[in-house]
Amino acid sequence: MKFTEDHEWLKTEGDVVIVGITEHASEQLGDVVFVDLPDVGDTVEKGDEICVIESVKAASDILAPLDGEIVAINEDLAENPALVNEDPLGKAWFFKMKLTDASALDGFMDEAAYKDFIG
Amino acid sequence: MSELKRTPLYDLHVELGAKMVPFAGYEMPVQYPLGVMKEHLHTRAKAGLFDVSHMGQVIVPGEGAAEAFEALVPVSLMGLKEGRQRYAMFTDENGGILDDLMVANRGDHLFVVVNAACKEDDIAHMRAHLESVEELADRALLALQGPAAEGVLEALVPGTAKMRFMDVGVYHWNGTELWISRSGYTGEDGYEISVPADRAVEFARKLLADEAVEPIGLGARDSLRLEAGLCLYGHDIDTTTTPVEGNIAWAIQKVRRKGGEREGGFPGADRILSELENGPSRLRMGLRPEGRAPMREGVEIFAGPEGGQPIGRVTSGGFGPSIEAPMAMAYLPADTKEGATVYGEVRGKRLPARVVAMPFRPATYKR
């Protein structure tokens, strides 16, 4: 698993990357009540705001970690947004994307580096 | 940036694990480890303790205080009985709202509670128009809200269970004078308790020692008051909105209205009395978005799913943990009918919402 500075985790599954948010991010957000997911087939560029998480108090964006195409979204989150608080690293993945350039993944932090990053 | 102030309960909040944030010039707890959602639901199920010491507490002494105060508010204070409290608002010459407040008749003086962000201006405003105004900087203010509040407080301060909604009284606890009103801003039965600053932590700990009571932060305070359909100053009402537009005209008694014994005589009376007679052009209304996506402050409201100019704007919005759905307040044309569908533009998409009566959740006051 790799981690971004925007508190996302990335897991590879063949040539596809699964994206979610970290436990740290889920705690900071508080109780999640709604997740606005991208559409399958969307082409995204690194840094695009492609997903919105609404907690009781505020809305936060999830950014596309890299260039690519959305190939799947987690429909369970639409039904049960609280999964983001209950199981951020597991059941609460947000979307899967096919990367334009798979080698771009190498630049991200590993778990130890991410732990240092959040202090 | 000026230094943030702290309430007498600051250290206790930190000890309880609160996340502190700047709010109206103070460092205040936004949530405790329980989290906003559970804090909200706990208040509705049992009792929540809120620190509202950042709000202004003011005494206006003198037998003639009520009469003089009526020159600042469209509310009847001469008709307010001793031992009773009433919701009021300071208005300006244009009929806009300078602040909303609570006024209690305590016999030889009025006791006034104003919003933290407005308190300096409010006090200057009162001083400019009233003979004597004493700001009380040495008292904390706690709110105990929820169905268990009555039992919890009665056990500590006997006699308080007999109070009715909007009663006020002076009670004693361990040699300390508590000023208590049966009121609050959550839609729940409950109390607001003014306690000397040097006894505030001790008293708060006594309340928290009851297993029914949890400390509650600003996050849940906001979702609770929104479910209750209550205005937040600076968001739902301000100097650009009149009390009639703000849908708080119920607070204006008949004696201050056209044809009443003490008609007008407050700032902005011409406009406010005319709006009471003829209706305002726009009105604060409730919205229930149809999906799960909240419509937050600033979302523009349209009559149709595409095209056209906005007909209004959300002033407060979020998710209601008790109603398990999003809810919002918006100013809409006054002829918009309850049950009508309007559209809020959220992140570029027009989402449908139903115009509904407020509160979103019925209040449980002990009248």
SSE map:
The complex is a heterodimer of chains A (119) and B (367).
Chain A: E1 2-3, E2 8-13, E3 16-21, H1 23-29, E4 32-36, E5 43-44, E6 49-55, E7 59-63, E8 68-73, H2 76-79, H3 83-86, E9 95-99, H4 111-118
Antiparallel strand pairs in A: 1-2, 2-3, 3-9, 4-6, 5-8, 6-7, 8-9
Chain B: H1 10-15, E1 19-23, E2 26-31, H2 36-45, E3 47-51, E4 56-61, H3 65-69, E5 84-91, E6 97-105, E7 109-114, H4 119-129, E8 134-135, E9 139-145, H5 149-156, E10 168-173, E11 176-181, E12 190-196, H6 200-209, E13 213-215, H7 218-227, H8 269-278, E14 282-289, E15 300-302, E16 312-320, E17 325-333, E18 341-346, E19 349-356
Parallel strand pairs in B: 3-13
Antiparallel strand pairs in B: 1-2, 3-9, 4-7, 4-8, 5-6, 6-7, 9-12, 10-11, 11-12, 14-17, 14-19, 15-16, 15-18, 16-17, 18-19
Helix pairs in contact in B: 2-7
Q: Could you characterize the architecture of this molecule?
A:
The complex is a heterodimer of chains A (119) and B (367). Chain A is of the alpha+beta class. Chain A is 19% helix and 37% strand. Chain A has a 6-stranded antiparallel beta sheet. Chain A has a 3-stranded antiparallel beta sheet with strand order 4-6-7. In chain A, strand 6 and strand 7 form a beta hairpin. Chain A is globular, with a radius of gyration of 13 Å. By secondary structure, chain B is α+β, with helices and mostly antiparallel strands. In chain B, the strands form 4 sheets. Chain B has a 6-stranded mixed beta sheet, sandwiched between helices. Chain B has a 6-stranded antiparallel beta barrel with strand order 14-17-16-15-18-19. At the A-B interface, strand 4 and strand 6 of A face helix 2 and helix 7 of B.
